[in-house]
Amino acid sequence: MTQRDGLRVLSLYEGFFSGGARALHSTVVAGLHAVGRQQHSVLSIHREVRREATLQRMVDDQRYRALRAAGVRITSLGRTTDGGHDPQHFTEAEMATAARHAAAAHVVVSLKEQPLRLVNQPGFPDRPVVACLHRSDPEHSGAALGELLTAADAGRLAAVVCCAESTRQAYRAAGVPEHLLRVIPNGINLARFRPVSGARRLALRGAQGLPADATVVTYAARYDPMKNPRLFVDAARVLLERDARAHVVMCGAGMSPANPDLDGDLRRTFADRPDLLERVHLLGVRHDMELVYAAADVVALTSAFGEAAPLCLIEGAMCGAVPVTTPVGDSARIVEGIGFVTGFDPGEIAATWAEAAARRDELAGALTAARPRFSHVRMLSAYAGVLDRAAAGAGLRVARA
Predict the structure, then answer these.
(1) Alpha-carbon distances of 226 from 173, 221, 282, rounded to whole Å
(2) What is the DSSP code string of 229-282?
(3) What 3-state DSSP class applies to 181?
(4) pLDDT single digits (tens) 207-231
(5) pLDDT by residue (tens digit) across 269-319?
(6) CA Rg value for the chain
(7) 216 with 297: CB under 8 angstroms?
(8) Which of 201, 287, 346, 351 has the smallest number of Cβ neighbours within 10 A?
(9) At 217, is the secondary structure helix, strand, or coil?
(10) Where residue 86 falls among pLDDT bands split at 50, 70, 90?
(11) Among residues of the chain, what percentage have pLDDT more than 70?
């Protein structure tokens, strides 16, 4: 089977909402589509999702807009999380839409395990499927792990791409056949995520309401138990008490005063020192994270479980912020030589943030030297190879543009 327009790839998304996996996968889709050797499209099960105390609409999402700008066609089944849909059941109309789009593709890609429940439905076209996994805790994925194993048992999976070695090990232990597992480390656009000049850095701090001489710790995460925001808040209390020049920045879905859970965390932790809250900055979802990171001394992660290869650590470090993380997933490997790993004690975390900020200039050379290993160019090439091999394994011969 020869196609003049190159390999056609359909990516299945659960929905468009804030998170590193969607950002990473959208970078892959847009990058491969732009090269022209592969034609990519996206089918999203949901058109809007309520998460982290916010309603996140597909058309408002930064990743949706970036994909559209790159010329990637995006379609949705139209579901909403407030619509009372049975996640395991699809209507005839939904299946007809999904089948039409899948039949037009040579390879189907599933962003995480959840969309595989659509692939496993009777009537879904027989296409090689590549599942892309971005966590290290299959035990927390509920029914999604079962869908992944069902797809593997049915012979639908051509490959399972893991963004970290911890992901590969966890899913192998969970029963995914080892011959399917491939590790492709996360990469980022280094032209976007880079340090700025001293003058630019001061200007960015001024725009964010941060003093020029402040010690700035930035936390980029959605409000979720996996990310352990309560631990971050507890450590922030210790830091702000110890250092009168310290400021902490919290950004991501749910990291705003509109989130009652976060508001409760802050009230509980700072009940006796409300004055310290003046140095806690809640930015919510930002579309200019490269500028937020460039103003920081430290990029922090306090996750309790589930992480694989957190993008915030990579992006922050490549903007010149020293990464400090708890030992979850591949986080320790990512920051080796350029940052620090802590335990889960707030006092230890706060002390490590202070040390990291004090050693920022000392570590600048190591951060610069590490840039090539985080390039998204390498990542895109590896994904392209997996998709090409999936098509070849299914007997497809695809002409190159």
Answers:
(1) 21, 10, 19
(2) HHHHHHHHHHHHHH-TTEEEEEESTT-STT-HHHHHHHHHHTTT-GGGGGGEEE
(3) strand
(4) 999 999 999 999 999 999 999 999 9
(5) 999 999 999 999 999 999 899 999 999 999 999 999 999 999 999 999 999
(6) 22
(7) yes
(8) 287
(9) strand
(10) confident
(11) 97
HSE of 181 in the Cβ direction (CA atoms, 13 Å)? 21
Q: Locate tokens 């430290």: which residue?
A: 298
Among the listed residues 180, 125, 123, 128, the one whose alpha carbon sits nearest the alpha carbon of residue 149: 180
CATH superfamily, domain at 198-374: Glycogen Phosphorylase B; (3.40.50.2000)
Widest distance between CA atoms in the chain = 70
Q: Are 194 and 319 in contact (CB under 8 A)?
A: yes
Asked whether residue 82 carries a pLDDT value surpassing 80, the answer given is: no
Q: Which two tokens stand for residue 122?
A: 């009777």
Give the E-state strand segments of 5-152 in sequence order: 7-13, 38-51, 54-57, 73-80, 107-111, 129-133
The whole-number pLDDT of residue 4 equals 41
Domains 7-187+375-393 and 198-374 equal at CATH topology level:
yes
